[in-house]
Design a protein that fits this description.
Two copies of one chain form a homodimer. Chain A is α/β, with parallel strands linked by helices and about 400 residues long. Chain A has three domains: about 170 residues, 3-Layer(aba) Sandwich (Molybdenum Cofactor Biosythetic Enzyme, Chain A), CATH 3.40.980.10; about 80 residues, Alpha-Beta Plaits (2-Layer Sandwich); about 150 residues, Maf protein. Chain A is built from 15 helices and 17 strands. Chain A has a six-stranded mixed beta sheet, sandwiched between helices. In chain A, α11 links the parallel β13 and β14. In chain A, α1 packs parallel to α6, α2 crosses α3 and α10 packs parallel to α15. The two termini of chain A are about 45 Å apart. At the A-B interface, α1, β2, α2, α4 and α5 of A face α1, β2, α2, α8 and β10 of B.
């Protein structure tokens, strides 16, 4: 089995405010082709330390992957240190330079001498194109070792890694294959879910099962290893089917799709359209739905009515209703859902009104109280929740539960 | 200045699902007494790698702090490796053994031979009591170096560190104190910013300067060390002032506030209210504004008009205008800003219409084209941008630039 080592570069990763998260994603990708990560190092923008770390890594690991330090500023020294350690000369790559220039000027910025440094490439190394930023990646093979330098931002390094590194790793790691499956579930607590499925997955040592709690619900990660991809897939499929059957409607996705994507597919199929009326979530549900490309096929619009007056002006909720029941109430949630449905002409209106805090809670309406309304041609309904967590989590959870309500109502 | 190095021990920290977070808290504590963290390593429960990492750490750093691997199971080998590297014998500490026994039996469990291993202490080391778990910590000084082994769980290692390590560190780092400042800037590229300020910050070795690119703009991190907190503050203040002056209006925050918070403070001060009309950002701007607690004081609402029809129905944009100029145009952006201002009665209306892709681009309107509109009592204006990146980044950048336009327009 091949060993990999990850080097996260950047002084900011040695402060109390930031931590390396790139290595998690990279580890998953490496594991998927049967490569184990044996060590991770975080080093600052310090030439001597970085050089030492890189030399140590080259001595002990088959594959070395670094992230960060490829930017245009003076403290981005990864290229330089890397060239010194591998004994390569840095040379200007004029194709890369032209691309960087084009990128920068198209954004209305001026090209500076600093930007030119990003086109310095160690001789003999392969340039990894970066469509999402100016810093290209670098890939090199030396003495049977594979060295990959990636930029820091995930948006830049992830597609780069998948396009230009994974194919190579798959070739190198011949023999062991891994198959994974992620089941996503919503509307059920982590321990409740575990109670349901533990008797099943405990009977299997391959695939292994890991249960994770995320902002968008619970994820069940299954990983199977075998001598062939087909066999690994078979193993993972068998357990996934058993778990899905046991969990019934709680599972919304078995192929990694997000809740937003699942809802989108379902609405498209039924030719339904949807609109949201949001108070405490402040546009979060609309934003999540529209993160999916092509959402305009089924999402028509949203109103964020952050004050009582706006609930009346923009959604037609009667002022007396708010007066009598309070803005955070089931009746107002229903009126908001009905209002957005009527004003947009959408098939489905979803609404959220609640108290995300930190201030404003009372005994009757504590922080975390959220009402979700749902209106369609059949009728209108609401659901009350008291959600734990801080402002951020309350807003996220409310938006997830609203989306989950939509999914449940329009199960095929 | 003393250098510290942190070793996070545990194979689970080398999986895709878990990452070391102990080091963030430890870094903050170390920094507070003027000790810099120069390197962090994550190593699994692998004797050879751990031994190598510990030897390397002892060679290059004054202070070595490890977390994890002190538990009772076979794979908790930190004690053993540590004893070998420092040349100390592990001996049974009968006081510690008695405490462990008492702890375990009082919880109704049976003492196992594995538990006894936790009472093995390197000769000459100091035992750090652990009131919150069975694994005691270990502290040792050798050749002027300080080595501290802590258990993994934060609720065990944090009180232990504060009680038995911090007092020693304060003594060792006598005098040296650290002050930090974060300047945040928007509307300027990373390298353009660096060109402007490098001639200034390069003259200073104290404070040190690090520049970071984030989703919300550029951050400049300054760190000063001095014999007293007051002097460190003075040093960091001096450079911060110079940089801020040089960068003029690009700097939106000098105390770590987010762009959303800065805008909120400014609107509150002027008693202005704001509303957004969003197309391609799908509610993202509203969502960002309302992430700030108390946003209801100045944010009234938003309309997400994701189709042409909704721009007309919800915002009163004339259909002919869209027909003639296209939905992604400056004129429509202005009409949307004007429309949301009128419909909500807010002081300021901000709008975004654009094409986030991935599909739908043409030669005239390529993916990434975004128009931002701004309407207030003075008048209405728009700005055209062609943003690079994928759907996610285009939406994020558009929302940041819209917020930045608001900030610029209402500078004090």
């Amino acid at each position: 089995m091949l060993n990999a080592e990850i080097l996260a570069i950047g002084s900011e990763l040695l402060t109390p405010h930031r931590t390396d998260t790139n290595s998690l994603w990279l580890t998953e990708r490496l594991n998927s082709v049967g490569i184990a990560v044996k060590l991770k190092t975080v080093v600052g923008d310090d030439e001597a330390r970085m050089e030492e770390s890189l030399r140590d890594a080259l001595r002990r690991s088959d594959i070395i992957i670094s992230t960060g330090g490829l930017g245009p500023t003076e403290d981005d020294i990864t290229r330089k240190v890397f060239a010194r350690v591998t004994g390569c000369t840095l040379t200007m790559d004029y194709d890369v330079l032209a691309e960087i220039r084009q990128r920068i000027t198209s954004r209305g910025y001026e090209m500076t001498p600093n930007n030119e440094r990003q086109a310095l490439i160690p001789r003999g190394a392969m340039v990894l194109p970066n469509p999402n930023g100016t810093a290209p990646g670098i890939r090199m093979e030396q003495d049977g070792k594979l060295i990959v330098l990636l930029p820091g931002p995930p948006r830049e390094n992830q597609p780069m890694f998948d396009d230009y590194v994974m194919p190579l790793l798959e070739k190198r790691s011949r023999g062991i294959r891994i198959a994974t499956r992620v089941l996503k579930a919503a509307g059920i607590g982590e321990s409740q879910l575990d109670d349901k499925i533990a008797p099943i997955y405990k009977q299997y040592s391959n695939p292994t099962t890991t249960i994770l709690f995320t902002e968008a619900g619970v994820e069940i990660h299954l990983t199977a290893t075998a001598e062939s991809t087909a066999r690994a897939e078979e193993l993972v499929e068998e357990l996934a089917d058993l778990l899905e059957e046991k969990l019934e409607n709680y599972v919304y996705s078995t192929r990694g799709e997000s809740l937003e994507e699942v809802i989108g597919q379902r609405l498209l199929l039924r030719r339904y359209t949807i609109a949201t009326a949001e108070s405490c979530t402040g546009g979060l549900i609309a934003q999540r739905i529209t993160e999916v490309p092509g959402a305009s096929e089924y999402f028509v619009g949203s109103v964020v009515s952050y004050t009582n007056e706006m609930k009346t002006r923009l959604l037609g909720v009667e002022a007396e209703l708010i007066e009598e029941h309070g803005a955070v109430s089931g009746i107002v949630a229903e009126a908001m859902a009905q209002g957005i449905k009527e004003r947009t002409g959408a098939t489905i209106g979803v609404s959220v009104t609640g108290l995300a805090g930190p201030g404003g809670g009372t005994d009757a309406v504590p922080v975390g109280t959220v009402y979700i309304g749902l209106a369609d041609d059949v009728g209108v309904s609401n659901k009350r929740l008291v959600l734990p967590g801080d402002r951020y989590l309350i807003r996220w959870r409310a938006s997830t539960i609203a989306l989950e309500m939509v999914r449940r109502r329009y199960l095929l």
